[in-house]
Each structure stands twice: as C-alpha cells, then as structure tokens.
Write a structure and sequence with these properties.
The protein is of the alpha+beta class and about 180 residues long. It has one domain: 2-Layer Sandwich (Alpha-Beta Plaits). Helix content is about 40%, strand content about 15%. A four-stranded antiparallel beta sheet has the order 2-3-1-4, sandwiched between helices. Helix 1 runs antiparallel to helix 2. The radius of gyration is 16 Å and the shape is globular.
Amino acid sequence: MGESYQIRDQEMPYFLTFQVVGWADVFSRKVYRDLILENLTYCRKEKGLYLFGYVIMTNHIHLVVQQKDGKLSEWVRDFKKFTSKKLLSLILENPQESRKEWLKMIFAYHANSNKRSGDMQFWTHENHAVELFRHEMIESKMNYIHENPVRSGIVENPEDYLYSSARNYSGMKGVIEVDYW
C-alpha cells in the first residue's frame, strides 16, 4: 500500500474508497446495496461514525467519513470485515443469484493471491484514504462522490441517484441520514 494513501491522523475526516475484488459488479443488486446502507446507518448510531457523504456504485463505494473516537482505522477494519462476511453469505446462499458461481470464482481467485484472506475475499485491502484537512478538499471530494453516477452515465443529475448522499444535500429525502458537512 502506498504511503500517501494511509490513514495517519485518526481524528481527521477522510475520503475512502472500498473496492470489490476484480471490480465485480456486486452492487448492481438492491439487496447488497441495502446491506451497505444498513451498516452505514448502524455505524452512525452505534459506532461513532460521522458520515458526511457516500455513493454506492456497482463495484465500489466512496465515503467521506470521520470517527468520533479517533479510531478510523479500526472502524474501516471492522466495517469491511463485517460487510464482507455478510455479503459473501448473502451472495452464496441466495437461490436467486444467477451469478453465484462466477462471483465465487472471483472471490476465491483473489483470496488465493493474498495470505491475509481466507477462502474468499470480497474487498480489496486498499482504501485509497485521502485525509481532508482543508474545507476545499472536502468540497472537492463530495462533488467527486456526487458526480460519480453522472460520469458513469447512470443518471443525468447527481440527486437523481438513489444510493448517494447527493439527494440529502439537494434537499431531497435520502435513503439514509448523513451528517451534513
């Protein structure tokens, strides 16, 4: 992992990217996006997370977050560990999942090339952590997050994308609450 993308100051807000191994399009299914939303909501209420911004794309999520207790690295570790176990279980036990064997092959392949993983790996180990120490940096990353579905050609306007905090910031009801920056 590059030196420039590590969480150094545990108390600062950070821009984070959690990527599915192999860029597998897991979050094209609502059930998997909803699991991420449920966990972000839980972490806001119970784990001291400030969630300033988010977007869930088909194969990665972007977040602008801060941890109240100054334990951001621990939160990242716990969030990724919990969600990977839950998502792998949901995918592999879902009789409706038509891509089950293909996804299983991707997760197993990436686990084989990594000593820290078990039989399957869901998230990459990188988080692309960028410390946001100036207000302009936060605004820039929030714009990046909110424009992601527009750049991908999914929607015309950021607030039209349901799985993003752009809705919250545009005055619309978001699918989950955020902590406004």
